[in-house]
Each structure stands twice: as C-alpha cells, then as structure tokens.
TrEMBL record:
The keyword Disulfide bond applies. Residues 9-104 form the Ig-like domain. The keyword ATP-binding does not apply. InterPro entries: Ig-like_dom, Ig-like_dom_sf, Ig-like_fold, IL-1_rcpt_fam, TIR_dom, Toll_tir_struct_dom_sf. Keywords: Disulfide bond, Glycoprotein, Immunoglobulin domain, Membrane, Transmembrane, Transmembrane helix. The chain crosses the membrane at residues 116-135. Residues 158-238 form the TIR domain. This is SIGIR protein. GO terms for biological process: signal transduction. It holds the Pfam family TIR. It comes from Spizella passerina (Chipping sparrow). PANTHER family: INTERLEUKIN-1 RECEPTOR FAMILY MEMBER, SINGLE IG IL-1-RELATED RECEPTOR. The gene is Sigirr. Gene3D superfamilies: Immunoglobulins, Toll/interleukin-1 receptor homology (TIR) domain. Belongs to the interleukin-1 receptor family.
Length: 238
C-alpha cells in the first residue's frame, strides 16, 4: 500500500496565491487550510515565512486539526497580523509538508476627506462663477437669443418693450426717428412707444401718461439739452 504520509496535502484556502491591499493600522488573519490524506501519526507542522524569512514563535499562529474520516483530515493554520508600519507588509507563505500557499500584503492609501472637500469647493466655485456670469451676461444672452431665434415669449401683460420720452425739438426727433427707432425696432425687433406729447404738461403725470408707461417694460429718456430745459425739469433734475 502507498505511504499516506508522503502524499502532498491539497490546499483548500486560499484557492490561489492571494493579494490583499490593506491600509496602515489594519488587522488581518491569513487562513491556510489544507486537506490531508494521512493518519494521525504523520501530521505535519505548519510553518509561516515572511519575505523568505521564517517566522518564529513570537508570531500569532493558531493551528486546528479536524478529522473527516480515518484516512483524511483537515488542517487550518491562521496567522494573525497587526499592520502598524510599512515593514509589516510583504509576502507571507504558509508551508505544510511540501505544499505552499502565498499571501501578498500591499499597503493601500487611506481615502481621506481632502478629495471630497476639494471636490465640494470646486463645485461651489463653479456655481458662483455661473451665478456671476448669469448676472453679468443675462441681458446680452437674451439679446443674442432674440437676434438668432426671434422674439422671446414673455407673458407679463406688456404691449411695448420700451416707452421713449423725448422732446419735440428737431434734433431730438431726428435722433429718435433716424437712429433709435431704426436700431431698436427694425434691427433688433423691439416694439417702442413714441410719445410726441409733453410728458408733464401740468407738472403732474396725467392718467394717459401713467397708463402708457405701465404698458411698457422699460423707460428710455432722451436726456438732451432741450429735455432739461423743460419747465418741470428745473425742479426734478439737479
């Protein structure tokens, strides 16, 4: 009959050479389990090595035998490690008779809060930048959109985009009808309300003036010399 003590054990755990990435300060147990087809009188003694150097009795090792039947037994050897320094990492090998199981321990960098904080600050900075761009460039963006795609849908009940207040002086009328109106109405598509009457004929705003201004989204004042020379402007402008 064959000598059962010479039969090499079958490694059950680990199934293959195992590599573990652990952070500094971790505690780990390396489990080496084999199936031994032999009798009690030829039980081998498991040994551990690190980077080719045998670990002595100072290492924390537990060995457990369990018999499945008279000719087959299980052996589990557990090595307990505290990874407190870089020197604790390396290649550990479990030797049982002529079978070897290898564990490679590598140090993994601990994930700190710095990347998360930097990402949050970056998102916050991006939001602030977008808000500033929105405030500074909103009107230009709306004008660009209007020039490219046409009238924006605005449901505010207004009939005109702007109320233009000016005098009937020849220079002011030329400026309105030859510069302002062609640029705003013909080129940019704005709808203007041109009031040819005196804005404050009785020093108090009339009902028609209030109604006309309320129909417009903006007020454009052609602040010329003739405009400032109006009687009501003497007390309203300094």
């Amino acid at each position: 009959p064959p000598d059962l003590c010479s039969v090499p054990p079958e490694i059950l755990v680990p199934a293959a050479n195992e590599t573990l990435e652990l952070v500094l300060g971790s505690q780990v147990e390396l489990n080496c389990t084999v199936r031994w087809a032999g009798t009690e009188h030829c039980q081998p003694i498991p040994t551990w090595s690190k980077d080719g150097q045998w670990l002595g009795s100072g290492s924390s090792q537990d060995t457990v035998w369990s018999g499945q039947n008279s000719s087959e037994q299980l052996l589990a050897s557990v090595l307990q490690l505290n990874l407190t320094q870089d020197a604790d990492f390396g290649v550990f090998a479990c030797w049982i008779s002529n079978a070897t199981a290898t564990f490679t321990l590598r140090r993994a960098e601990a994930v700190g809060h710095v990347p998360a904080v930097l990402a949050a600050l970056l998102v916050l900075l991006l939001l602030v930048l977008l808000a500033v761009l929105y405030v500074q460039c909103r009107l230009n963006a709306l004008l660009w959109y209007r020039d490219r795609y046409g009238e924006l849908e605005i449901n505010d009940g207004k009939l005109y985009d702007a109320y233009v207040s000016h005098t009937n002086a020849p220079d002011d009328r030329k400026f309105i009808h030859f510069i302002v109106k062609p640029q705003l109405e013909n080129r940019h598509g704005y709808k203007l309300f041109l009031d040819e009457q005196n804005i404050l004929p009785n020093s108090e705003p009339s009902a028609d003036l209030i109604m006309n201004v309320s129909r417009c989204r903006r007020l454009i004042v052609v602040l010329s010399v003739a405009y400032l020379e109006q009687e009501w402007c003497n007390s309203s402008f300094r």
